[in-house]
Amino acid sequence: MVHQVFVLSLFLDVAMGCVFSLPEDRLVTVDRAPTTRDTSFIDKMKKTGKNIVVFYGSQTGTAEEFSNRLAKDAHRYGMKGMAADPEEYDLSELSRMGEIDNSLAIFCLATYGEGDPTDNAQDFYDWLQEADADFSGLKYTVFALGNKTYEHYNAMGKYVDKRLEELGAQRIFDLGMGDDDGNLEEDFVSWREQFWPAVCEHFGVEATGEESSIRQYELKVHTDLNMNKVYTGELGRLKSFENQKPPFDSKNPFLAPVTVNRKLNKGGERHLMHLELDITGSKIRYESGDHVAVYPINDTAMVNKIGELLAVDLDTVISLNNLDEESNKKHPFPCPTTYRTALTHYLDITNSPRTNVLYELAQYASDPKDQENMRKMASSSAEGKAQYQSWVLDSCRNIVAILEDLPSLRPPIDHLCELLPRLQARYYSISSSSKVRYPPT
Ligand SMILES: Cc1cc2nc3c(=O)[nH]c(=O)nc-3n(C[C@H](O)[C@H](O)[C@H](O)COP(=O)(O)OP(=O)(O)OC[C@H]3O[C@@H](n4cnc5c(N)ncnc54)[C@H](O)[C@@H]3O)c2cc1C
Ligand SMILES: Cc1cc2nc3c(=O)[nH]c(=O)nc-3n(C[C@H](O)[C@H](O)[C@H](O)COP(=O)(O)O)c2cc1C
What we know:
This protein is α/β, with parallel strands linked by helices. About 30% of the residues lie in helices and about 15% in strands.
């Protein structure tokens, strides 16, 4: 097993009957902007010279990551983009998009539940259903994220695409659909490859040919920080694991001791476990069918290997600070922290990296052959896609294996930490009844 169980937390969500109540970036509550923040994305776009806004409806970070990639892409076409959480802005301002030259709104929207929006897109969805707005000045496109095995495949993306048109907005490129049961990354890359030329044609602009990568965060190394102020794996409040205080939720999980851990089946490929968690003193209540979250931590040997390969002291205390001071997301994960904590608790180092990670890292390969191969795998050419599929996906190559197999590739660790996706909690449905009281252990 690649992941080890670190803590078990039990928390409930009433709204959707699941724990997906907060997108990743909102877990870092201490770093959020004050609630009096400006909700006008139009003002922000004008102030920062942006003409493209990419709104994301995301629960586990994929749509948010795609939005960041699209916002970065804009640079290559001489435009300026920003990714935005719909929950933080007044989306009725979409009717004012015409005030900005060559403006475009892109929506990357995931679907959950019975074809429902993500939590952070719920208000937008509710508002859109009732809206009586004039969107004639709005140019838009939608990329939907879903999974074909669900009955309401990509329902949210399809709905927004149709509804914006009904309200008079101009679709400048066809709805894209990504299937997480297939190859979501390839669906996205293929859609994006046709989308940008369509944008160029629409606005009469040309690619600048500038393929250089743009950093979103800058590194700050702390040399004299009190270690009590350094995150050690907490998701929200500093020291929340040492000093457990209710109410418990996904920002502030209750760390439930595992009192029984028994394998249920003998033989066979499946691994069925019976687990009992002690929630004494937590005041948490649950129903059968709610779920617990397991927060995994990465294997120490893998983390150490990254430090070794990149020749860095993993205990260096750092912050990655957003270069866009206007952004509400100040850091990619709780900061200040150490590289060791980031690679152990906050970043996914075991899944195969997406193509954008290969693309961005390619610049650090000193062997031109490695550089060329990495760029090819990140490209939309048939050969590149096939190579990515076999060398990365089919071979389950994670970032450690890639660094080992490409000795010329030695990126700065802070850039690597910026690029890797966040490590996600794993959810497990509760099968026991809340009505039966187990003897305290
Ligand atoms: C609401 C909800 C409720 C759920 N309830 C349950 C439930 O009751 N029971 C249940 O079992 N699940 C449940 N799930 C699913 C569960 O959350 C996990 O997704 C599931 O257990 C898989 O997690 P994993 O970490 O084992 O696998 P993954 O998330 O797929 O991680 C496996 C890791 O191993 C790596 N890997 C895979 N193959 C190789 C290889 N050959 N070589 C090297 N590395 C490899 C991968 O890259 C990856 O990093 C639920 C999910 C949700 C959303
Ligand atoms: C609990 C759960 C429910 C989901 N429900 C749907 C659904 O109804 N329709 C659909 O097309 N996809 C559904 N999906 C798939 C997600 O939309 C897809 O994995 C998407 O890439 C997630 O994006 P995110 O990481 O930005 O949240 C569901 C996924 C989960 C885990």
